[in-house]
User: Fold these one by one.
Assistant:
Number 1:
Amino acid sequence: MKAMGFYNTGGPEVLQEIDVPEMLPSKGEIIIRVNFTSVNNLDVLMRSGGTKMNFNLPHIPGTDVSGIVEKIGEGVTGISEGDRVISSTVYGCGSCRQCASGNETLCKSWKVLGMHVWGSYAELVRIPSWMAIKPPKSYSQEELGCMPLSLSVSWNALKVAAKAKASETAIIFGASGNSGLFSLMLAKAMGLKTIAVTRSEKKKPSLKKAGADHVLILNQQSPETLQKEAIELTNGEGAEIIIDPIGNPIDSSIAMLSHGGRIVTFGTSLSAESQLSIKKFYWKSASLIGVHNVSAKELNDAFTFAEKKGIRPIINSKLRVAQAQEAHRIFSSSEAFGKILMEHKWQH
Ligand SMILES: [Zn+2]
């Protein structure tokens, strides 16, 4: 089968077409023929070596899966060849206490598709059958190719971790990124007041259209200005929720947080390390919550809510998987707004 993968980490140019043997499903597994996938920050981190983890080469990235079940292994029930499915992104060991209760993200042996095992830049992916979800029919295969990871992590951050309630205010960092945009749309649909934070003034109109009540520009030279603006927009109280997929300095986030507020963090593109002033943290009765992925159940809940509220992905561009180099360049450019979708169309 064909795939876009890499033999060495580096820039987008290391991505190349490779041929790898087709996989067969083991007991309890299924094979999905991937129709659409999309670029996520994880793919870029894997390709560039930014995760600092050891993994076997060649590697095939890709976490989002929208496709059709091609083969089912022994003992698989509830899913058939030809079913239209998406895939959950995280594997647990399948046998520990957390896995048994549907909390595979809390399994000590968690693995992610496209990170620890070959992902959806290949024509076929092999997953345990319980990771497959039959998505709502109202979403096209294209839309599904760019929703699973970003939508579900955003859902987990807002609903499961922060326990967001209507009438609260959410400050969303990295709002024009993949999960930032879904967080913005979800927060708006949940009835929250939304303050989007982005690095580009040019993205203000698009963010307003996507559901931002206010847009603040992140200027790393002057975090105090951002804090002052955020406090003014929340009548001096601070926001109840901060959604942070970029790694904003924690002390700066606490300064914008209301008493009893919650900071949810799941990314480090701005900074991998952060100082925490413990006194400021407990004086505000603040909570700091980390999320790294989402269980299959939460993915399903996220889609049910998104469909009910008419949330659809914003698609920046559509390319073929064979154009993954260009897709990664667009993804990393400051002009990108919305998902970079890729279609599995190969000339055999
Ligand atoms: Zn487990």
Note: The longest strand covers residues 29-38.
Number 2:
Amino acid sequence: MKRWNGWGRTDYEYHFADSSKAFVEKNVGKGEIIPDATLESVLKKVPKSRLPDHALYTSDAESRVRHARGQSSPDWIAMRYGTVDHFPDAVAMPAQKEDIETILNLAKKEHFNIIPYGGGTSVVGHINVENNDSPTLIMDLSAYNRLLHLDEISNTATFGAGVRGPDMEDALKRHGFRFGHYPQSHEFSTLGGWIASRSVGTQCYYYGRIEQLFLGGLMHTPQGNLEMLPFSASAAGPDLRQFALGSEGRMGIISEATVRISPIPEFEHFYAIFYPDWASGFAALHEMVQSRLDVSMLRLLDKFETETTLQLSGKDKLVNLADKGLRLIGMGEERCMMLFGITGTSAGARATLHQMQHVAHRYHGFLEKSFVGKMWFASRFTTPYLRNNLWECGFAMDTLESVFPWSKIAAVKDEVETALFNGLQDENERLIVFSHLSHMYTDGASLYVTYLFRRTADADQTLARWKKLKKAASEVIVKNHGTISHQHGVGMDHRPYLPLEKGVLGMQSIRNFYSTFDPQGLMNPGKLYKDGDNDSRKSNS
Ligand SMILES: Cc1cc2nc3c(=O)[nH]c(=O)nc-3n(C[C@H](O)[C@H](O)[C@H](O)COP(=O)(O)OP(=O)(O)OC[C@H]3O[C@@H](n4cnc5c(N)ncnc54)[C@H](O)[C@@H]3O)c2cc1C
């Protein structure tokens, strides 16, 4: 069963070793053990629903609590301290398109809001009820999740948009295919959510980014249905799929999506290369990307992330052994780890591995072929469970991300990290901050920063700490002309920064476009932009 107030299933726990806890405490101080609010206490806060009873949705308090928040830091604070105060009035789980349309028509007639909901894994406040003025219904698509059509010749598949990552892969595997979109939230996030929030998977160089994978589909809007035909390519004017991508529930509900799929590859393996320091790892990475080496995944961890990854892996003996071995070959305190994957044919993989090794060698890199990459692969979807352990020991963890040109990224990385390190100086609080470059382009790379700080028994104080840190880092990002999000989307948390990159006219066109489909403003209000806000205060034009 899915947890109601944290990450993941209730029957899985990450192994958090004493040494891992000691490592965190050494860096930020001892954590305070603060009991979570109980589900019963939160259930008592759920007010009477303002929606009339209907067979297509439930107003049951537990369903409303379980759909109230996502996975952002403010969401965790609200749910785990029990300070959550806005709840949806009802939850619908339509299993057919007709039910989606019936509910949409009802919303128009009764004037209630609808929040489309995939897996609720948003980390930026995409699915929260922000304003309690009008009743809100969560439309959870998880029951509309089946493989509807497979074209084994053209390598395309049509799915109900509520399908979760593992179920999608299982359905395709039976026919010898793979979708290959692997965000770290894969266990719970859904096809509709990936499209609506423009998510990015780890192996996107081989399988494609969501905007390359999404061919077309069906969007139910308050003004009617929009069918986006699955053309391989089209020059027939603007591409409406681009408006569905990143629509964050404002335009309508995606019920079905046709996507590109790949035959299960003959070969797939993950590797690590250790470099003596950041400068050599960075130079090697740059050369590998500019040479367009055929990897499916590529990332470079800085020395703090390299160290923290090893320390929090819970595998003390192996880590000590690896540490000794690496030191013997000159990889000391400054060492940085590169992780990469190769997917495709065995012959192609041999050639790519050889090329990667060749570049790495020139920058004094050491290729580790058998253990670290395998360990990364095995734990790629379980690492998020560590956030539960850290929280229970008194620590909050969050991430943020952007993308910058190669010429700027190293300097901006330092600036963002410094802003976070110093972000709680006024409270004498220390932080753990580390980064990796996660997705590469020939013109730039995405920066993914993780930070960890102590929470207190006071929910408001913990939230205030997060706000301070988020603001400090976001300001550095926008000051350096980075996008406010490379992959997590806008939701409510990034909303204040969006006008800086889109400008007044840009924001107006987004508002106007979505209001064509939803003139009453019923769909997911407050996400991307605040209704009624004129954006001028934050504009760049
Ligand atoms: C541990 C963890 C790891 C993560 N790793 C990654 C990562 O590697 N890459 C990445 O890009 N993101 C990542 N995320 C963020 C998140 O998983 C993505 O944003 C994901 O795309 C959200 O999908 P979801 O199905 O959970 O959507 P939700 O969170 O339920 O919704 C997200 C938005 O999409 C809208 N929406 C959902 N379904 C539909 C639909 N059918 N029709 C219309 N609108 C819809 C919602 O209204 C909302 O605005 C991570 C999050 C967590 C908690």
Note: DSSP finds 19 helices and 18 strands in the chain.
Number 3:
Amino acid sequence: MSLVGGILGLLAGIALGLLGAVATFFVGGIGGIFGAYIAGVNAIILVGAIMLYQNPNSAHTWGIIILILSIIGGLNIFALIGGILAMTWKPSGASAAVGAQPISRICPQCGRVLEKDVKFCPYCGKNLEK
Ligand SMILES: [Zn+2]
């Protein structure tokens, strides 16, 4: 699952959380205060989700914040999953750099640094084509 999928889950969770909060608010009394509290926590989760989307490098930090908020905000399971996804998600730039080709290579015979595309080693004449 991608980060975008996680954020979509997060937004669905926030929508459900706010819906529940509004429903609780109309019941009134202590329920109303609780509803306002849930709505407030979910609003902070929403801010976290936006921050996460705009700055994927801080996904881990916001993932933890969302995780904690989703628990104290009436156990919002969608936000909880979104938070876990954000925590485990790695920016795609980091994995792309690992697979990048090296700009030079070493001659297996004489050990000198060679151009990437040479067919013969210019120092010892070794055939580098396989
Ligand atoms: Zn060589």
Note: Residues 107, 109-110, 112, 121, 123-124, 126 surround zinc ion (CB under 6 Å).
